[in-house]
Amino acid sequence: MTVEIGDTVGLHAGAGKSILAYQPTQFVDEVLSARLPQYSSSTPTNPRAIREILTEIKNDGFWISYGEITEGSVGISAPITDAHGFVTKCVCISFPESMAKTELLDRWSNEVRQVAATISQQFRGASLHQLSDLS
After folding, report:
1. Cα gap 125→44, rounded to integer Å
2. pLDDT, tens digit (0-9, with 9 covering 90-100), for 8-25
3. How many CB atoms within 10 Å of residue 114?
4. What's the Rg (C-alpha) of the chain?
5. SS3 of residue 73 by DSSP
């Protein structure tokens, strides 16, 4: 798995869905009405199926992606809420699919959610001046 600086991926694939799930309906509609690139054979491109996934993410607080961007990789992501309550980023770990054992997925999913919650809490506790220094 290689990600180069400056690489971009649509919000409909992989960890991007952990951000997309918390966006206003109009924004989601706009994203899903555009051409959705297929990065691998597992990339979801059906808007109805993606909407179902977004609901699942909001219910669970995380997403596990299987090869949606890179074949043979798995990613676990969870949303980060900023000081204003908006989700504009997420925490994600990725690893080879051969490591995707149920007990590890359960543990790592919980840990990714905890890290995202900790970062979100730090954003909520920071002043606007402190946040501008992070940019």
Report:
1. 36
2. 789 999 999 999 999 999
3. 12
4. 15
5. strand
Confidence of residue 5 (pLDDT cuts 50, 70, 90): confident
Q: What are the pLDDT digits (tens) for 111-135?
A: 999 999 999 999 888 655 555 555 4
The sign of the torsion formed by the CA atoms of 84, 111, 95, 68 equals negative
Q: pTM for the full model?
A: 0.86
Instruction: Give the β-pairing of 87-96 and 63-66.
Output: unpaired
Q: How many CB atoms lie within 10 A of CB 4?
A: 5
Q: How many residues does the chain have?
A: 135
The single-letter code of the amino acid at 114 is: Q
Q: What are 106's two structure tokens? A: 């359960």
DSSP states of 62-89: -EEEESSSSTTEEEEEEEEE-TTS-EEE
Identity at 38, one-letter amino acid code: Q
Structure-block tokens of residue 40: 């691998």
